[in-house]
Structure formats: structure tokens, C-alpha cells
Automatic annotation (TrEMBL):
<keyword id="KW-1133">Transmembrane helix</keyword>
<keyword id="KW-1003">Cell membrane</keyword>
<keyword id="KW-0812">Transmembrane</keyword>
<dbReference type="Pfam" id="PF00083">
    <property type="entry name" value="Sugar_tr"/>
</dbReference>
<dbReference type="InterPro" id="IPR044775">
    <property type="entry name" value="MFS_ERD6/Tret1-like"/>
</dbReference>
<dbReference type="InterPro" id="IPR020846">
    <property type="entry name" value="MFS_dom"/>
</dbReference>
<feature type="domain" description="Major facilitator superfamily (MFS) profile">
    <location>
        <begin position="23"/>
        <end position="459"/>
    </location>
</feature>
<dbReference type="GO" id="GO:0005886">
    <property type="term" value="C:plasma membrane"/>
</dbReference>
<dbReference type="GO" id="GO:0051119">
    <property type="term" value="F:sugar transmembrane transporter activity"/>
</dbReference>
<protein>
    <recommendedName>
        <fullName>Major facilitator superfamily (MFS) profile domain-containing protein</fullName>
    </recommendedName>
</protein>
<dbReference type="InterPro" id="IPR005828">
    <property type="entry name" value="MFS_sugar_transport-like"/>
</dbReference>
<dbReference type="InterPro" id="IPR036259">
    <property type="entry name" value="MFS_trans_sf"/>
</dbReference>
<dbReference type="InterPro" id="IPR050549">
    <property type="entry name" value="MFS_Trehalose_Transporter"/>
</dbReference>
<keyword id="KW-0813">Transport</keyword>
<dbReference type="InterPro" id="IPR005829">
    <property type="entry name" value="Sugar_transporter_CS"/>
</dbReference>
<keyword id="KW-0762">Sugar transport</keyword>
<keyword id="KW-0472">Membrane</keyword>
């Protein structure tokens, strides 16, 4: 009754007191996420420069095939990075794994700064993928460990928001700042990340796994913004007891074996994990982000591609913010369904414009349509396809397989990304933009059917209760 009489200011104050530390912690770790976003979007403004006579490389302009390798080498590093950082966080904890993601990030910007041929860029993109593998495999599990279940989806949505903050920066800066100034600026971010994340405690789950009970309690108190044991609430005590029981149950379980993957729950979880990661990539959104500058140039838009890139990236963030605001109220399934439907329709429109332009129709007056279709693709993708996969996987996997399931899904994500990013520029030359994006539109159409009939709602699911996974 007392809670019902509280007005919005009082409820907001209570929310802030309880959740402030976990929100600030997530923002700190997303320094590396935003930096990774810069590397994801780097090819969009830079590849057209590298292919032009004004290329900053002494070796001369890069070819279409070299450009496709610049885009896709990131995904090779991502595949290795996902497995590598999964091993690191399993044996050394999530905090150590997070801190180590900064190492390849420092190397990549150093290679771009000193490199004088395309092989340096390949190496830099590979290192970028290593960091991305760490972001994919560690960050969602870190958030799942520290987040209150009521805001887990909201905090999970921040991952893609920060990636897109990096995209906006590079889309804007990449066209106007000197080529060698960008790496000098970006070398600041991993250093700031190391300093700020070093002060965060390890997650309660990782500490309990190591038998450090007192430190685990203090860690959970920190993330629930409880300064002293005398301020512990019944809700906190219940949560900590559930976490201890969960970790104890896991520790008494037998080692993971093939039989664990053959249960109906495991099969369903793995299917959903593979499906959402495949949709994330074969919808074409990551490839479009990588080659947005080239797509806008080939689409015959009358708008300056440099300006259009920034507008598209800003609308992408608007989609992320929309998801951030409503994901824990609307639910995962409905957001994923709206996203897949919208992206499929927007790509169909982009393909139709490209097709009509290719066969000779006069589309004067409709030069804005490709920009609008591209912006809608990224906006609608951002409300579901591009962010929900990263936190739905821990929610649908059985507790025993949650970590390895996230690793499998993240590894497949990078493999799928390699295929799309490597093939997209080649397909755009051979079957034109319309053929390329219509394939992605078809993928979204198939995904809509799968989402309706096979994807469950996981909003508010308690990840620390073993029985939840059996319901």
C-alpha cells in the first residue's frame, strides 16, 4: 500500500538508489563497446577513400576484392576472439576477460596509424574482431550476472546503443578528419576503459564459483547500491540466497556431456541461439553498416553520401533508444517480430528502387528513397534484430549450458558475419544492389514465421533459479 501511494519522483529516487551502480558499471564497460562500434563502421567512410586515387596508402588504391577482405577480416578475428575470451572468462573471471579486450584494440589502432599497405589494415581488422569476440562473448554474460531481472533487458539494449554511438562518430569523423588522426584519437579509449573498469568488483556469480562468499556478497551489495550490511533488504537476501543455491547446484552437477545437448530444452535453446544470430547477419544489417557509403554511392541518391551516412547512423541510434525504453515492457518476442517485418519491407523497397533504376526508369524526384529505406532498415533492425540476440541467448539456454551456448552462438555469429561481409560487395557488383538486398528481405520473411511459432517470450525470467529453466 505504501508503495502504491508513492508518486513518480519517489519511485524514480528508489529506482536510482537501487540500480545506479549497475547502470554506471555497464556504461563503463561499454567504453570498449563504443570503440568496437567505431571499428565496425570504419570501412563505410574509409573504403571509398582507400579505393579512390586520393588513397592514403602509398601502395595505391585497393581493389574490390581487397575491400571485401578489409570488411570481412574482422569476422575471422571475431570467430577466434569469441572462443578465446569465452575460455578466459570461464577460468579467470569476467572482469579479467573484459580488461583483456583492450589489448587487441590498442594494437589495431597502432597498425592503422603506422601501416603503409593493405596488409596492415587486414591485421588491424583481425585485431578488431578479437575485441568484438570479447564484446559478444563476455559483455552479455557480465550484464546477466550483475543486472536486476527487472531491467536486464534494458541494460542489455545498451550494448548495441554504444556500438552505434561509435558508428555515428566514425560516420561523421571518417569523412572529415585526416586518415591518421582517427587512430590517434581512438587510442585514448582503451586506456580510459582499463582505468575505469579496474575499479569494478568481479561479478557475484564468478566470485561464488571460486568459493569467495564474502567478496561475492560485497559485490552484489555494490551492484545493488547497498553501502552496508545493515541496509540489506529482504529482497537482497532472497536474491543472494537464490544465487548461492544456483551456483551450488551447478557445482554439484556432472561435467557437460553430449547428453546435455540432447534434451528438448537444450535443443530448443541452441536452435533459438543459432536462429537469432543467423537473422542478425543474414538480414544484411551488419554488411549494410560496413558498406553503407558504397551502397549510397551505387543507389543514385541525390543526397551527399557523407551527410546521408550520419543521418542513417543517428536514426539507427533512435531505434536503439526506442528498444531501450520499451524492451522490458513490450517483451523480446514482439520487438523481434516487428523488427524482422520492418527490415524485410524496407529492404524490399530499397531493392525495388535499385531495380527500377537499373532497367532504366527515370526516378528523378525519388533520389531520397534509398536513404529513407536504408535509414528505416537500420532503425527497425535496431529495435530488435541487432540487439535482442545478445541477451536472449542466456535467457533461453539451460543454466548448465548457458556459458557454452553463448559461446557457440557468438562463434556462429562471427562466421555468419564473415560470409555476409565478404560476399556483399561482390554480390552488389554481380547481381546488383536489388538482388543482394532482396535475398536479405527474403531471410526476414522466413524469420517472421519462425518468430511467430517457435520463439518464446523471456521477459523477466529469473536466471538464478534452476527450476525456471525447466518450466
Amino acid at each position: 500500500m505504501e508503495q502504491e501511494q508513492q508518486g513518480p519522483p519517489e519511485r524514480a529516487s528508489i529506482w536510482a538508489r537501487k540500480n545506479l551502480n549497475q547502470v554506471l558499471a555497464v556504461i563503463r564497460i561499454h567504453i570498449i563497446t563504443a570503440s568496437y562500434g567505431v571499428t565496425v563502421g570504419w570501412p563505410a567512410p574509409i573504403i571509398p577513400l582507400l579505393r579512390s586515387p586520393e588513397t592514403p596508402l602509398p601502395s595505391g588504391p585497393v581493389t574490390v576484392d581487397e575491400a571485401s577482405w578489409i570488411g570481412s577480416t574482422l569476422c575471422i578475428g571475431g570467430t577466434i576472439g569469441t572462443i578465446l575470451f569465452a575460455i578466459i572468462h570461464t577460468y579467470f573471471g569476467k572482469k579479467i576477460a573484459l580488461l583483456l579486450t583492450s589489448v587487441p584494440h590498442i594494437i589495431l589502432w597502432t597498425l592503422i596509424l603506422v601501416g603503409d599497405n593493405v596488409w596492415y589494415i587486414y591485421g588491424a581488422r583481425f585485431c578488431s574482431g578479437l575485441t568484438g569476440g570479447g564484446v559478444v562473448s563476455v559483455v552479455p554474460l557480465y550484464i546477466a550476472d550483475i543486472a536486476d531481472k527487472k531491467i536486464r533487458g534494458t541494460l542489455g539494449s545498451l550494448t548495441i546503443i554504444f556500438i552505434n554511438i561509435g558508428l555515428v562518430f566514425i560516420y561523421a569523423a571518417g569523412n572529415y578528419l585526416p586518415y591518421d588522426l582517427i587512430p590517434k584519437i581512438m587510442l585514448v579509449s582503451p586506456v580510459a576503459f582499463i582505468v575505469l573498469v579496474s575499479f569494478l568488483p568481479e561479478t557475484p556469480y564468478c566470485l561464488l564459483k571460486k568459493g569467495r562468499l564474502l567478496e561475492a556478497e560485497r559485490s552484489l551489495m555494490f551492484y545493488r547500491n547497498i553501502s552496508d550490511q545493515q541496509y540489506q533488504t529482504a529482497e537482497f537476501t532472497t536474491e543472494f540466497d537464490e544465487l548461492k543455491n544456483f551456483v551450488h547446484t551447478q557445482s554439484t552437477q556432472s561435467r557437460i556431456c553430449w547428453a546435455d545437448f540432447t534434451t528438448p530444452e537444450a535443443k530448443r535453446g541452441l536452435f533459438i541461439g543459432v536462429f537469432v544470430m543467423a537473422l542478425n547477419q543474414f538480414s544484411g544489417i551488419f554488411a549494410i553498416l560496413t558498406y553503407a557509403g558504397t551502397i549510397l554511392q551505387m543507389s543514385g541518391t541525390g543526397i551527399d553520401p557523407n551527410v546521408a551516412l550520419v543521418l542513417v547512423a543517428i536514426l539507427n541510434i533512435c531505434g536503439n533508444l526506442t528498444s531501450f525504453a520499451i524492451i522490458d515492457r513490450a517483451g523480446r518476442k514482439i520487438m523481434l517480430l516487428l523488427s524482422a517485418t520492418g527490415v524485410g519491407l524496407a529492404l524490399a523497397v530499397l531493392g525495388a528502387h535499385s531495380y527500377l533504376l537499373t532497367i532504366g526508369y527515370d526516378l528523378q524526384g525519388a533520389e531520397w528513397l534509398p536513404v529513407l529505406a536504408l535509414a528505416l532498415t537500420l532503425f527497425l533492425g535496431a529495435i530488435g534484430i541487432t540487439n535482442i540476440p545478445f541477451f536472449i541467448v542466456p535467457e533461453v539456454m539451460p543454466p548448465k549450458l548457458r556459458s557454452i551456448g553463448s559461446t557457440i552462438s557468438g562463434t556462429l555469429l562471427c562466421m555468419f558475419a564473415f560470409v555476409t561481409v565478404k560476399l556483399y560487395p561482390i554480390m552488389m557488383v554481380n547481381i546488383h544492389i536489388y538482388g543482394t538486398v532482396w535475398i536479405s528481405s527474403g531471410v526476414c520473411a522466413i524469420a517472421v514465421v519462425i518468430i511467430i511459432f517457435l520463439i518464446p517470450e523471456t521477459k523477466g525470467k529469473n536466471l538464478n533459479v534452476q527450476s525456471d529453466s525447466k518450466k
